[in-house]
UniProtKB/TrEMBL annotation:
<keyword id="KW-0378">Hydrolase</keyword>
<keyword id="KW-0347">Helicase</keyword>
<dbReference type="GO" id="GO:0016787">
    <property type="term" value="F:hydrolase activity"/>
</dbReference>
<dbReference type="GO" id="GO:0006281">
    <property type="term" value="P:DNA repair"/>
</dbReference>
<dbReference type="InterPro" id="IPR050628">
    <property type="entry name" value="SNF2_RAD54_helicase_TF"/>
</dbReference>
<dbReference type="GO" id="GO:0004386">
    <property type="term" value="F:helicase activity"/>
</dbReference>
<dbReference type="GO" id="GO:0008094">
    <property type="term" value="F:ATP-dependent activity, acting on DNA"/>
</dbReference>
<dbReference type="GO" id="GO:0005524">
    <property type="term" value="F:ATP binding"/>
</dbReference>
<keyword id="KW-0547">Nucleotide-binding</keyword>
<keyword id="KW-0067">ATP-binding</keyword>
<protein>
    <submittedName>
        <fullName>DEAD/DEAH box helicase</fullName>
    </submittedName>
</protein>
<dbReference type="InterPro" id="IPR027417">
    <property type="entry name" value="P-loop_NTPase"/>
</dbReference>
Length: 69
C-alpha cells in the first residue's frame, strides 16, 4: 500500500521533487511489519536477479519463507 501511494506521488508528468518519509516507532508492531516487508523484498530480489539460476542464492529456509510453508 505504501509503495502504491509513493508510486502515485511519482506519477508521469510530475515536475516537482517527491520525497517519501516513513516514520516507524521503535518497539512497535509497525517496526515488525516493516522488517518482515524488508525480508520479503530481499527474498524476491534474490529470486528475480537477471543472469542467475533462480534457486541458486536461496536456502531451503528462504524458499519455505517465500512460500509461507
Amino acid at each position: 500500500v505504501e509503495d502504491q501511494a509513493a508510486g502515485r506521488a511519482h506519477r508521469f508528468g510530475q515536475k516537482n521533487v517527491v520525497q517519501v518519509i516513513r516514520l516507524i516507532a521503535e518497539g512497535t508492531i509497525e517496526e515488525k511489519i516493516y522488517e518482515l516487508q524488508q525480508r520479503k523484498r530481499e527474498l524476491i530480489g534474490q529470486v528475480i536477479q537477471p543472469g542467475e539460476s533462480m534457486l541458486s542464492t536461496l536456502s531451503e529456509e528462504d524458499i519455505k519463507q517465500l512460500l509461507n510453508i
